[in-house]
Amino acid sequence: MVILVKPGRFYVLPQLSYGYGDLAPLMSEEQLRIHHSKHHMAYVNGANSILQRLDKARKENAEVDIKATLKELSFNIGGHLLHSLFWGNLAPPSKE
Ligand SMILES: [Fe+2]
């Protein structure tokens, strides 16, 4: 599993190694598309938003509620990591 973090772009939604429709009928194309492109993306965007907020606060020497911010950051990074593990454990049905 590769967790992508690019300089200046932070976390990145991983590409799936299969198509959105490849897990049907066990998981519909719509269900997989929403889960990956909306739910997982929300964790990636959430983590990146917090990291940008921390960078801004650091530059401006502004105070941050670090306990609340780290709780929110760990929630979003956790969601990103768990979803990445989940995608890596799924595969289209064997054609054999
Ligand atoms: Fe999910």
How do the helices and strands line up, and which of them pair or pack?
Layout: E1 5-6, E2 10-11, H1 29-59, H2 66-88
Helix pairs in contact: 1-2
Bound molecules: fe (ii) ion.
Fe (ii) ion is lined by residues 35, 39, 83.
Please tell me about this protein's structure.
The chain has helices spanning 29-59, 66-88; strands at 5-6, 10-11. It is mainly alpha-helical and 96 residues long. It has a two-stranded antiparallel ribbon with strand order 1-2. The chain is elongated and about 60 Å long. The model has no long low-confidence stretch (mean pLDDT 91). The structure holds fe (ii) ion (FE2). Fe (ii) ion is lined by residues 35, 39, 83.
Task: Name the descriptors.
elongated, 96 residues, mainly alpha, binds fe (ii) ion, Helix Hairpins, two-stranded antiparallel sheet
For the largest sheet, list the strands in their spatial order. Answer: 1-2
The dominant shape is elongated
Tally of domains: 1
Biggest pleated-sheet summary: 2 strands, antiparallel
Span from first to last CA?
Answer: 26 Å
CATH architecture: Orthogonal Bundle
Question: How much helicity do the residues have?
Answer: 55-70%
CATH fold annotation: Helix Hairpins
**Structural class assignment:** mainly alpha
- Radius of gyration (Å): 16 Å
Write down the overall mean pLDDT.
91
CATH superfamily label: Fe,Mn superoxide dismutase (SOD) domain
CATH class: Mainly Alpha
The number of distinct helices, counting runs of at least 4 residues, comes to 2
Percentage beta strand: under 5%
Detail the poorly predicted runs.
none
